[in-house]
Amino acid sequence: MITVLGLGFVGLTTGLGFAKKGFKTYGLDINAARVAQLRNFEIPFHEPHLKEVLEETAGKTFFLNPPLEEAIQDSEVIFICVGTPGSPDGSADLTYLLAAIKDILAIDTDTHQVIVTKSTVPPSTVAKRVKPYVDELLAAKPGRKVSLASNPEFLREGYCWEDFIEPDRVVLGVNDEISQEILTRIYAPFEAPIHYVSTNSAEFIKYLSNTLLSTLISYANEMAMVADQIGDIDIPRAFRILHEDKRWLSRAPGKPAGMASYVYPGCGYGGYCLPKDTAALHSIAAQHGFDAQILGGNLQTNEDVKDFVVEKVKKTVKPEEPVGILGLSFKVGSDDVRMTPPADIIAKLIKAGYRNILAYDPLANDAFKAEYPDLEIAFEPTLESLMDKVNHTVILTAWPEFKEKKELIQQKPVFDFRYIY
Q1: What average pLDDT does range 238-252 have in this prediction?
Q2: 301: which of 58, 218, 233, 358 fits an S-S bond (Cβ 3.0–4.6 Å)?
């Protein structure tokens, strides 16, 4: 029996994934609007396959938002998938995580339970923050038996289902045989390599993965800015030729490995994971007395590239001219606009005096409007309607539609900051 607390990208995918494998799984979320959508078989964000799996498993192996006491008392494993947003100093905010643990331990049960942190948290969180907190709460409950574990996720938005149901590896941070035995049992049906490490190591591996990706992106963006300064360099072609290096290739002859997509210039990385995780690891390194200069430079480059975009626009476009923003989500295949670079770029353009900004995204118009209500821009329902109203366009997300309709877009001056042409 499994309980998943938090039904965002990670939690919903996790809950439905275990339910698909036949485990009785409870999924809970405190967001009433989100729960209402799920009861109507509506996925609150763009993520392929989840709707079909929800329809298939609901009421059979997946049970949505039962009373918390019922779910906890009927579970051996409890996955915490709540948000761990970044604080102003870059550190991770553990408020929701610790609140979830308090709610779990307020419920009595004779079952030895494994509480698994799946939310992304900095190394040493379970050992130095969660365990002391749990020990404190359990001091008055000597009969309550709990083990703690860490199980980081490696899900790509837009491909969450594939990544969960067919993982390339499973990382389990465990400190006792009970945790290892139970978690091994529930992951056995996935037939993936399982790595047993300490909770610190599990937490670090997640940050190791995300900060490598963010560093690759910042490196590519810095090189693109260098090339622009030098001049007479075909930037997109240079990077595409770079990817032909056989060291970037997968085992399938001639097919680029997925990592190559991170070594390609754009307008900065965004979304929920890379910005906050890179900042969090940089912050925790500083707390331990180490100045992680590469991570610091990575974060600075991610800000510098947005200024680079704005300055390029300012050199050509007058503030009173209508400007079209093509792409609002932080990546293709997702409607996620959290910490998306287009939001910062639009804000900088507005600050520079641009008041006639129109935007179009194939998926994210409504999400962007809801997330950034203070950004006074207009939204167009189609690419064609936007092109009729603007003098210049700025490509900030590399949607396939923008590649397919190259001739339409290039009828007017275009700033291609995703280097898709």
Answers
A1: 81
A2: 218
